[in-house]
Design a protein that fits this description.
The structure holds two protein chains of two kinds. Chain A is an alpha/beta fold. Chain A has one domain (6-238): TIM Barrel (Alpha-Beta Barrel). Chain A is built from nine helices and ten strands. Chain A has helices at residues 27-37, 59-62, 80-94, 114-126, 139-147, 169-178, 192-200, 210-213, 218-238; strands at 6-8, 11-13, 17-20, 41-48, 69-73, 98-101, 130-135, 152-155, 184-186, 205-208. In chain A, strand 7, helix 5 (139-147) and strand 8 form a beta-alpha-beta unit. Chain B is built from one helix and five strands, in the order ββαβββ. Chain B is mainly beta. In chain B, a hairpin with a 2-residue loop joins strand 3 (39-42) and strand 4. The longest helix of chain B has 8 residues, at 24-31. Chain B is 11% helix and 38% strand. Chain B starts with 5 loop residues before the first strand and ends with a strand. Chain B is globular. The chains are: A alpha/beta, B mainly beta. The A-B interface holds A 20-24, 27, 30, 43-52, 54, 58-60, 70, 72-73, 75, 85, 88-90, 92-94, 160-161, 187, 209-210 and B 11-14, 31-34, 36-41, 44, 46, 49, 64-72. Strand 4 (41-48) of chain A pairs antiparallel with strand 5 (62-70) of chain B.
């Protein structure tokens, strides 16, 4: 196979699996899972430094941002104002321009607030950020995000952390058809077959956190997801056969006794 | 302790008492936070990390110091 490179905001990646760094038992476990997954991009969150307990380990001590690209995320933000504040701070930490925008609208199902998301995308793009946007799988809103300068469209497969897999396959297919920038499935992946499915539908990458971090064996699941993404991608690029409701023998009749 | 020479500031939601003419640089040094791994906000304005020694804190200043943690 020719080299198959994922390009986001002019940066090139070999791996099409992006992983989250939340919900692990320890930073050591997190770092090891990332290594096994082969991911070159990890999402990270911005939070207050614990000023009372300075002995706590720092994420950067375990995952080197020079080797793995940090994708600062606005996890937990419910307004455009909070999301903008978070990402401006993230940029200040070390010059991060490629960011993940996530503006939530509902505390229970964690669906994104698309009005606030669109508003934030427009502002961040004007400020020079390269915005990868967590969004709903609505083709119209996704088009508006793309038109407003987003660097990647990241529709949910299902609610964050739900592990339900791709709920609306038709919408994802429509999105694949209309989206000219990277299309990345973000949230809702539960098992390896979900990741294969997303890649076989032509998505450019998948972003997974809970399915790996909360699996009984996170390292084994990280490996499973790595190969699922590779497998799904190769399957997509290979050009599948046309589904046929008639049987078609695999062996010629010629020479049949 | 002479209270006139002290100011009260709020750092990450915690009340701290520091000396007058206490700079942001002094604060970061006091907290022993690695400067290249954090970002600082003073009264909701992002602070240029190169200018920390020139910024002196005032009474009731609110400072936020953030870093990256694991997240999805």
């Amino acid at each position: 196979m020719k080299s198959d490179i994922l390009k986001i905001a002019n940066k090139k990646f070999k791996s099409r699996l992006i992983v989250g760094t939340g919900k692990y038992k320890s930073m050591k476990e997190c770092a090891n899972a990332i290594k096994i997954s082969g991911a070159e991009i990890v999402t990270v969150a911005v939070r207050r430094v614990n000023i009372l307990d300075r002995s706590k380990p720092l994420l950067m001590d375990y995952i080197d941002p020079k080797k793995i690209m940090y994708l600062p995320n606005t996890a937990g933000c419910f307004t455009s104002k909070d999301a903008l504040r978070t990402l401006r701070l993230a940029r200040e930490i070390g010059g991060w321009k490629i960011v993940k925008l996530e503006v939530l609208g509902d505390k229970k199902n964690l669906f994104p607030d698309m009005i606030e998301t669109l508003k934030s995308t427009e502002i961040l793009t004007k400020e020079g950020f390269k915005v990868m946007v967590y969004c709903n799988d609505d083709p119209l809103m996704c088009k508006r995000l793309e038109n407003s300068g987003a660097s990647a469209i990241m529709p949910l497969a299902a609610p964050i952390g739900s592990g339900l897999g791709i709920l609306n396959k038709t919408n994802i297919k429509i999105l694949r058809h209309q989206t000219k920038i990277p299309l990345i499935i973000d949230a809702g992946i539960g098992q390896a077959s979900d990741a294969v499915e997303a890649m076989e539908m032509g998505c450019d990458a998948v972003l997974i956190n809970t399915a790996i971090a909360k699996a009984k064996k996170p390292f084994q699941m990280a490996e499973a997801m790595k190969y699922a993404v590779i497998s799904g991608r190769k399957s997509f690029l290979s050009g599948r056969i046309t589904p046929n409701f008639q049987g078609s023998p695999s062996t010629t009749k010629k020479g049949l006794i | 302790m002479n209270k006139k020479n002290k100011i009260k500031i709020v750092v990450n939601g915690k009340l701290l008492t520091v000396n007058l003419k206490f700079s942001l640089k002094n604060l970061i040094e006091k907290l022993k936070t690695p400067i290249n791994k954090i970002a600082i906000e003073l009264n909701e304005e992002i602070v240029d990390k190169k200018k920390l020694n020139k910024i002196f804190l005032k009474n009731k200043d609110k400072i936020e110091i953030v870093h990256f943690i694991g997240g999805g």
